[in-house]
Amino acid sequence: MNNLYMAPSPHIHSGDSIGRNMYGVLLALVPAFFVSLYYFGLGALIVTAVSVASCVLFEYLIQKYLMKEESTVGDGSAILTGVLLAFNLPSNLPVWIVILGAFVAIGIGKMSFGGLGRNIFNPALVGRVFLLISFPAQMTTWPVPEVMSMNYTDVETGATILTLLKEGSGDLPSYAQMLLGNRGGSLGEVGAIALVLGLIFMLVRRIITWHIPVAVIGTVFLFTAILHAANPAFASPPVHLLSGGLLLGAGFMATDYVTSPMSRRGMLIYGVGIGLLTTVIRLFGSYPEGMSFAILIMNALTPLINTYVKPKRFGEK
Amino acid sequence: MLKTFHIGGIHPPENKLSAGQKITQLNLPKQVIIPLAQHIGAPASVTVRKGDEVKVGTLLAKANGYVSANIHSSVSGKINKVDSAFDTSGYSHTAIYIDVEGDVWEDYIDRSDTLIKDKLMTPQQIIDKIADAGIVGLGGAAFPTHVKLYPPPECWATVLIINAAECEPYLTSDHALMMEKGEEIMSGINLLMSATRVGEALIGIENNKQDAIRHMQQLAKEYRGIKVVPLKTKYPQGGEKQLIEALIHRQVKSGELPISVGAVVQNVGTAFAVYEAVMKRKPLIERVVTVTGKDVARPSNFLVRIGTPISQLIEAAGGLPANTGKIVSGGPMMGRGLTGTEIPVVKGTSGVLLLPEKDAKRKPARDCIRCAKCIDVCPMGINPTALMTATEFSNWEAAEQNHITDCIECGSCAYICPANRPLTDYLRMGKRKVMGIIKSRKA
Questions:
Q1: What pTM did the predictor assign?
Q2: CATH T-level fold of B123-279
Q3: Which of A119, A310, A314, A317 best tests the B interface by mutation, with the highest count of B CBs <10 A?
């Protein structure tokens, strides 16, 4: 007889793994990536490739040579951070800025806390906000969509929907353009239909639950509907839902496991908080978009939410 | 909509490989090893000595105190020794070794197949017979049945709940028993209803056992107050609190007993044992055991004498597969890993599961990624990952405040964890520690 394994129950496992979830999210982002390739061409490809490659490399090097641990870069979480960082950048961003952003995202946002599972803030957003504050000009110069463009940093630029709203001038794209992704913005945030498809895929695969995306989107919808009704100068809810990084943020950034609350009630509170903060920043702040800030602020509140909002216990009234 | 419980739960692959296999009587072993601690509570105290001749049904050890149970000989022969033996707990405890000679039964046992449906008896007489026969809960926990039938003062039972969910993957012993001993089970349920003075009994069966649901529904027509309720298949439906909620929509509060919502829960196998004990005066000397596993040649349901080494069951099912990495007594979710094959079948042994090495080996644990899947599946609505951390850092105050004592050790959290964290191990450990602290505080 072989040696028997001695371990307490349970003796079977679902087979779920960190990798399965991370690669599942990546798969869900594929349609949105195709949309960016279509509208932003070569620039989207270069920025995404550089971001992913640098995130993976930085994580590998830091884990192996600074933390002296076995590398877990194969679990896909660094790739995901790379993709999400790229999706939050304009497609004409120079390579060196992308690499710097990846370093801040992985090095400061993730590994300085101890790696996957220990970070407080969404690493990709740490990278993005760092770049936004450090390079405000480059980070807010948005390429105009141009089918399969072969231009990179020399692409024609224009305003995003939210900048147009902030400045109160210029014509907005049509709803059809917004749904398809034919609008200015960060390279991965534009394809509304593609992002929703990815979101549905993650819900079906049970990678995430509906609580956070529904709370975020629902809150923004309700809040902007009220304001729009009170003063039609404020844009209507559909425009808010289809502009900026709302769908990307609600579906793929706010739902980051590590930095979002664990109980379902906590998830709802967190999602409502993100929705409120985003709307307030968009309408009354000096920045045109507030999604990244809203998520980071609610990331900071997550430990507090986890402490005070517990799951509903069996037998509890 | 099928009924079920409403917080958490998982859907592991059912793997009911031995479903539909008739119950077959296993040959008598050459020697049986009968442990004195087969139940929750105090071990029974020995009443025989080395060299004594015993028959099937001879009392070997007497219940020692209130929560304890009698133990009878499952074979005829001579007491070889009273010595220690490894049991399913992984530790060695006192056990009686009997060398088997022939198969002679005590005269008081009625061995006929005649079905007895009714007998006029007081609740006390029924409970006494159950206690005499050493009946314990056969679902796995092995709590002495007669103790469960005395409600605490000022508590009244209103409903008897029969646990036939058999929610553990692989196991089919209750299923087989319902298909073959349905009449006897109904009569046993009737006795349990009389003993607890309730007019209603609900049999909860998961709907992955359609034939058993139909069969039992057919039989229940002849019994007043007994109803079969099909349940949506979901683990851990057989958990006492989960089953009560599924059937009567009431949640037993933290730290309280089922009787607080008027329920008494008994396993379907226990109902059969009660029938035999009361109607046939037969003590608990044998039970149905599923022997199963993906690479087992003939997954089977055996009728086995208590004390038979499990090596004999494995042999009868086609031998130990070469790739076996773990031998489990019970189901894969809550069963216990065994140290070898010479461990005896006891009253609480519902199955023997042979897991291949690739299933048995745990993957290395990673840091928690706070995905909250453990919280989603926890049927008690507690936070397994936070409780694991509390236990890791011996933060017993936090563990207690976050209700670690509510944990039913069902294993759902560790089953689902994408980071392969041994959540259930830590919760089990932390729960023991916190219960000890609470106990010493009261004392």
A1: 0.92
A2: Rossmann fold (3.40.50)
A3: A314
